[in-house]
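Input structure tokens:
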């Protein structure tokens, strides 16, 4: 069985040490230690060398950066599931966190040994948290399933993706775009694949046409290259 790779984003050093103490001896857990949470939050692209199964995210950081931080963590670590930890016992607030994209909420007033179980649950894509909060979050999602959301242009494409598509419109190759953005070429390919799937297109030219037609980027002529 592959270990659960855990990245802990916790601003309180004593709380962080507590997590290390609980998790370090479990053979099924691999801790990515020595990572500065401030540097992670400040990142603008997927980091290299970090591929966690679960990101443990302090509720304190959500209070500071709001629920939008969950979306950013998912962008930075698209393969990871998020387990929020904190002392928030309000069922409605925990439900909001689950609806916003977290896979679980671990209440720090609970038993420390339950943390191991919660990590293993969340690593499999299962939901962990107070039963009332889980039920409430699922109830809200079910009640909204037939309501078509009104998407704004900002919802359709992130600033980072808009920059990528603008570079694409200049006829740059994946390698050239990667050099411009300071990321790996595989990162560019990953984001292009996401955009292809989101907008139901199959080529760069189709993606550019869609982006201009829907005013996701400014309409202008672009160079044509064989790589298109």
């Amino acid at each position: 069985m592959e270990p659960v790779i855990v990245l802990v984003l916790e601003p309180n050093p004593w709380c962080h040490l507590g997590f290390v103490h609980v998790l370090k001896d479990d053979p099924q857990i691999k801790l990515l230690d020595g990572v500065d949470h401030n540097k992670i939050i400040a990142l603008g692209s997927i980091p290299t060398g970090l591929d966690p199964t679960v990101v443990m995210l302090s509720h304190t950081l959500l209070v500071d950066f709001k629920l939008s931080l969950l979306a950013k963590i998912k962008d930075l670590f698209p393969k990871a599931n998020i387990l929020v930890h904190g002392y928030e016992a309000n069922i409605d607030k925990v439900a909001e966190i689950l609806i916003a994209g977290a896979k679980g909420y671990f209440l720090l007033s609970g038993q420390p040994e339950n943390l191991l179980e919660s990590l293993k649950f969340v690593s499999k894509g299962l939901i962990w948290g107070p039963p009332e909060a889980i039920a409430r979050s699922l109830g809200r999602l079910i009640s909204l399933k037939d309501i078509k959301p009104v998407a704004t242009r900002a919802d359709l494409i992130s600033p980072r993706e808009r920059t990528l598509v603008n570079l694409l419109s200049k006829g740059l190759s994946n390698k050239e775009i990667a050099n411009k953005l300071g990321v790996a070429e595989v990162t560019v390919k990953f984001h292009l694949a996401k955009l292809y799937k989101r907008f139901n297109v199959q080529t760069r030219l189709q993606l550019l046409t869609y982006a201009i037609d829907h005013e996701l980027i400014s309409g202008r002529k672009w160079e044509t290259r064989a790589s298109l």
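The mean pLDDT is 83. Strands lie at 4-9, 29-31, 54-58, 81-86, 104-107.
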